[in-house]
Amino acid sequence: MENWAELDRRYLMPTYANLKLPIAITKGEGNYLYDTEGKAYLDLFTGLAVNVVGHSHPKIVKTLKEQGERFLHISNIYLNPPAIRLAERLSNSTIGGKVFFTNSGAEASEAAIKFIHKYQQKAARDREGIVVLKKGFHGRTLGALKLTRQPGVYQDFPLPSYKIIEIEPENIADLEEAIAKRPLAVLMEPVLGSAGIYPLSDAYLQKVQELCKEHGVLLCMDEIQTGMGRTGTLFAYEQAGIEPDLILFAKGVGGGLPLGGIISKPALSDLFAPGDHGTTFAPSPLSSALGNTVLEILLDDGLLEKSREVSAYLREELTALKESYSDLIVDIRGKGFMAGIVLNGNPENAKKLRANLLNEGILIDVTQKTIIRLLPPLTLTKEDVDLFIKTFKEHLLSLNEG
Ligand SMILES: *Cc1c(COP(=O)(O)O)cnc(C)c1O
């Protein structure tokens, strides 16, 4: 059999070497992945919040075949029915304006930066800068990298010159000070994902909206990780009762294929004029067709609603675990199927747990070194939760012995 680990080391640049697990995947089905040995893994990572309806969902596979037999790519100079349909549904399920599609999350951030610039040119020449949160993550291309406030990520790469104002999450005084500097826009993740699963409170998000409205500042929500039902509603902002001016989406929206973009509110939907932005591949007709099927499964088949019950059960079980083992677990954070288990003690523990659970056939993620991040498919069952909790508890307790 091929030594995939060896070939990976030889031919792929080692940007993910510290994260990579030693299993080669050959198949996915429902909530499970299978490796070359035929071993099954319960997938609580879903390729970083991408496979929201699980692996090889029958409806997704059907759409893939149907659209694959029609056409894969046509460019933006013809009408693209699967993409138009997807834009219509995304718009009608959110803030009602128009969509610009991209291939990825970072490209959605890039599009947002250009969109905000157009806002400055057309409506706010006396304003400058984008307000972002400390530790926020908005992608790794150079434009997006400037918005991303994690020093280990932006390092000393050459960054563009546009102005940003970094503030502390949940700190109202900081927010007011930033708004007083007359910025163009505020951009934030409603639940900070890569920073370690920090949900912003409804009260904070409402205050952000209030100040943005009062001062003519664009409210932009990066829902790239939180979107597509991840937090229990189609997009997380809904739960705070706010309405952003601009939504960034990606990850789960293409049903496993690359697709991202921005949605604006109607009043701003013609800020981008012909020639202002573009890309060859997006919107991929195939990704768009899958996107329509994901929305059908979430909204028409009732998966979004059903997922709330199981995610509440997961939250209860995690909270009970924290109460029983408060020496080992400092905090349980998150919303819906976006959960962070903050561990206490040895910083190696999270990595050790990830390795031990891999052995047991359960895939979990670690972020910010001490935080276990769970991003399960919305199709997760109570039985899956029970299996995870039982296995996790065993290995959590063995940390104390070792
Ligand atoms: C993943 C992510 C991005 C970047 O998306 P890519 O597709 O990896 O470029 C941006 N913002 C948030 C909140 C993300 O989670």
| Weakly predicted, low-confidence segments | none
Quote the distance from N terminus to C terminus: 35 Å
Bound molecules: pyridoxal-5'-phosphate
Q: Supply the number of structural domains.
A: 2
Q: Which architecture of the largest domain per CATH?
A: 3-Layer(aba) Sandwich
Question: What is the H level of CATH, i.e. the homologous superfamily of the largest domain?
Answer: Type I PLP-dependent aspartate aminotransferase-like (Major domain)
Number of helices: 13
Helix percent band: 25-40%
Mean pLDDT comes to 97
- Write down the overall geometry: globular
Q: How would a crystallographer describe the biggest sheet? A: 7 strands, mixed
How many strand elements? 17
Order of neighbouring strands in the sheet with most strands: 4-12-11-10-7-5-6
Derived structural class: alpha/beta
Structural Rg: 21 Å
How is the CATH topology of the largest domain named?
Answer: Aspartate Aminotransferase, domain 2
SSE succession: HEEEHHHEHEHHEHEEEHEEEHHEEHEEEH
Keywords for this entry:
single chain; 402 residues; alpha/beta; Aspartate Aminotransferase, domain 1; Aspartate Aminotransferase, domain 2; seven-stranded mixed sheet; globular; binds pyridoxal-5'-phosphate; Aspartate aminotransferase family protein; pyridoxal phosphate
